[in-house]
Design goal:
α1 (29-43) packs across α2 (69-76). The strands form two sheets. Strands 1, 2, 3, 4, 5, 8 and 9 form a seven-stranded mixed beta sheet that branches. A two-stranded antiparallel sheet has the order 6-7. With 291 residues, the protein is α+β, with helices and mostly antiparallel strands. The protein has helices at 29-43, 69-76, 94-107, 137-140, 148-158, 163-182, 217-220, 253-258, 283-286, and strands spanning 4-11, 15-16, 54-58, 84-88, 113-121, 193-196, 202-205, 242-252, 265-267. It has a single domain (4-290), classed as 3-Layer(aba) Sandwich (Peroxisomal Thiolase, Chain A, domain 1).
Length: 291
């Protein structure tokens, strides 16, 4: 089998998915994806778009503006028609699944250069947009147990996660994100893209919008638990609704060496597992056991 290496990776800033306050509220999701593709080729001029074997793009909700976005974004960006594309949907880990598919194709010798990407705009294409669940599925699962907030409460109960545990995790996640941002650790990966402030002022977005600079344990302790009385999940400990895109350039090691490209990450392998959708948050526990 061939060795697969990750040559480069870029992303847009991760901004709020909000029709009035989101910095990318007037940018369509395919435009974010196009910007990160362009950045990959600008940063790696040895690689020409027509040399890419295929583009795998992960998107959790492939509806509306994100319908077949893997193909349509590539074509909208003016990239070569000859390059294949493949949309990947595995909900939250869709982008990771795209990376696994690209890496496996390289390792199996199907090609030498691939792009794995991901995009989501949860304001323009919100969760459950155009969803039509099969009635037969509801014979197997209670629909009230499937939304993310409900599954998170169930995970907290099964694994004895307290509200204080969740709030400490959220607190330090934000504090460490602030420190990383302020020290410039994200500067090499974020592609500057023009956005708009709340007052309509145009500016180049180079930092993530979701980070809470003023995160407070005291404030989080006052928040309601909407999914379960005296539960664990509040707005303060929940992942935000966001918009953004990212892309990786993967190659066979031989091809990267031939082109004189630097790399420091080798893809060694991956694993996918399924789990009970009413406790979806525990998937990462089982995946390493299957590798």
């Amino acid at each position: 089998m061939k060795e697969c290496v990750i040559v480069d990776g870029v992303r847009s800033a991760n901004v709020r998915a909000h029709k009035d306050k989101g910095w990318f509220r007037n940018i369509r999701p395919e435009q974010l994806l196009i910007k990160v593709y362009q950045a990959l080729f600008e940063r790696n001029p040895q690689v020409k778009p027509e040399e890419v074997e295929a583009v795998f793009c992960g998107t959790a909700n492939q509806a509306g503006m994100q319908n077949d976005i893997a193909r349509l974004a590539w074509l909208t960006g003016g990239f070569p028609e000859v390059v294949a594309s493949n949309g990947v949907n595995q909900q939250c880990p869709s982008g990771m699944a795209a990376t696994e598919h690209a890496a496996r194709a390289i390792m199996c010798g199907e090609g030498d250069i691939y792009i794995a990407s991901g995009v989501e705009d949860m304001e323009k294409v919100p969760m459950m947009f155009a969803l039509d669940i099969s009635p037969k599925l509801l014979d197997r699962y209670n629909i009230a147990d499937l939304p993310m907030g409900n599954t998170a409460e169930k995970v907290a109960e099964l694994w004895n996660i307290s509200r204080k545990d969740a709030e400490l995790m959220a607190y330090w996640s934000n504090k460490k994100a602030v420190a990383a941002r302020d020290s410039g650790k994200y500067s090499n990966e974020i592609v500057p893209i023009e956005g708009e402030k709340e007052d309509g002022t145009k500016f180049m977005v180079t930092t993530d919008q979701w980070i809470r600079d003023d995160v407070s344990m005291e404030q989080m302790a006052t928040m309601k638990t909407p999914f379960k009385e005296n539960g664990v999940v509040t707005a303060g400990v929940s992942s935000p609704l966001t918009a953004g895109a990212a892309a990786l350039l993967l190659m066979s090691r031989d091809k990267a060496n031939e082109l004189g490209l630097d790399y420091h990450i080798k893809y060694a392998g991956g694993a996918m597992v399924g789990c009970d959708p009413t406790v979806m948050g525990v998937g990462p526990i089982y995946a390493p056991r299957g590798s």
